[in-house]
Amino acid sequence: MKSYKTNALIYSTIVAMGGFLFGLDAALISGTIDYITAEFSLTPEQLGTAVSAPALGVLVALPFAGYICNQFGRKKAILLIAVLYLISAICSALAPSYWTLVAARFLGGLAFSSISLASMYIGEIAPPKLRGKLVSMTQINIVIGLSGAYFVNYLINHWATSGAPWVVNMGLDTSTWRWMLGSEIPFAVIWFGLLLTIPESPSWFVFQHRDEDAKNTLRKLMPEDEIEAHVDEVRESIHKSTEDHSIVAQLRVIFGKPMRLTFVIAMTIAIAQQSTGINAVLFYAQTIFKQLGIGSDAAFVQAIWVGLTSIVFTVMGLLLVDRLGRRPLIIWGMVWIIASLGICSYAFKNARYVVSEQTIAAMEAAEIKDASLEESERTALNNVDRLNSLAGVEHTSDIEFKQAIRGALGIEDANKHMGTILDASIQINAKLVLIGILSFIAAFHFSVGPVMWVLFSEIFPVSVRGIAIPFFTIVTSLTSWLVQFFFPRQLESMGMTAVFLFYAGTVFVGLVILFFTLKETKNMSIEEIQTALQAKT
């Protein structure tokens, strides 16, 4: 590979690591849910707020990301994001209170704009023939980060329960969730250090009328005889994009009649992608798996399989999107998602919940572990007596079972031990649920996950793309926040069966709309796509 291509690959790889930090930061919270719920006595709404805080942060950051990039440069903007990741990780690990934790995670959400900025930077420094592959590295890094988070959570949880002397000395057994969230710190430091070695975007230099600086950077990225023509091309593109293209004017075009079909397609897929419930499954993975009665350690192991499945099928989707086409991947992928969610719903529908001797023993052990000896014996015996009234009674839904437990133990004691009791009482086809969830993860990352961003890069005219893509990114981010925030409450009020059916129903609505509106864009130029979409209106 020629030196300038090697440089482009190195710089792109470094910047794409922001995707890894994004995935890591987003998914580490999944292993901490039981710990922070117990430590801060969280309600479902408070838990949803803590988990979804980054999604709210990115909603605040996105409108300002473009301005910061244009004003201070791509490199400085991405360096700022690395600092935000680092501060967020430190503050999250040391959070003395619930609201401090929420604020720290919100701060991390401001850094989630790294995804759009990474794509912008890579697109501006990559050779045209390598641009697609290099830009896709960010998406691959995201799922690697997700998988890495599940693996880190598993290791820390495994060590924390091992009873080893070094675990006690380091406080892993008493501050498990803090170590989980703090594991992001070294990765953020490494990324910040590597970012110091990348050059500023040559396009930004041209934007700032610093053509000589742009040419100096381009000498690292392309042959000398192509530099002058490239600078002229960038200058012309910037000139065209600044001709009466105010935000209001561009939004008027996006909402206008000629773009009505494009608007319907973009809005539908932006909402449908997150309405699948993907981030509820990814960020509450351990919580879902613990409801299968497979034990805490096994739940962390199953979450690792979620991460690995994400990686494999994301790579497959990106490799096949140009061969199979956008429409088939989207349409059949959504059918696959609906079927997978249906399998999960069916499995929980047939689950049964029975308080047995095993249930009572597990709760008693948890009670004794969490309190002083004298107090624990008295409280444990009291709770055992109250649970005995439910012994042998079969419940057909998790909602009904949780209500019975709260009625027997009281809300405070029931919430404290619900995870342990549920784990020991459920009778369910765990393999069927695991198949359904892994199938859902595979379907999402093979289709609507990455392909939505491919469509966004194609269906909007160049003149409004700078506003259109951030606008619909805000739509999908808002949907993601709503899903994450309401999932704990849905779990409490609807139950797993209804939650999975709800997600399947919203995906079905999106499938129907896209079936009649989505046009294949494979092998079409931007101009041909605009003509086809506007002609249909």
TrEMBL record:
Major site of localization recorded for this protein: membrane
Organism domain of life: Bacteria
PROSITE patterns membership: MFS (PS50850), SUGAR_TRANSPORT_1 (PS00216)
UniProt cross-references to Gene3D superfamilies, sorted A to Z: MFS general substrate transporter like domains
Location(s) in or outside the cell: Membrane
Domain Major facilitator superfamily (MFS) profile, first and last residues per copy: 11-522
Keywords assigned by UniProt, alphabetized: Membrane, Transmembrane, Transmembrane helix, Transport
Membrane topology reported for the UniProt record: Multi-pass membrane protein
Cited InterPro entries: MFS_dom (IPR020846), MFS_sugar_transport-like (IPR005828), MFS_Sugar_Transporter (IPR050820), MFS_trans_sf (IPR036259), Sugar/inositol_transpt (IPR003663), Sugar_transporter_CS (IPR005829)
Residues spanning the membrane: 9-29, 49-70, 77-96, 102-122, 134-156, 176-198, 261-286, 298-321, 328-348, 432-455, 467-487, 499-518
Family membership noted in the UniProt record: Belongs to the major facilitator superfamily. Sugar transporter (TC 2.A.1.1) family.
PANTHER family (alphabetical): D-XYLOSE-PROTON SYMPORTER-LIKE 2 (PTHR48023)
Protein name: MFS transporter
Species this protein is from: Aporhodopirellula aestuarii
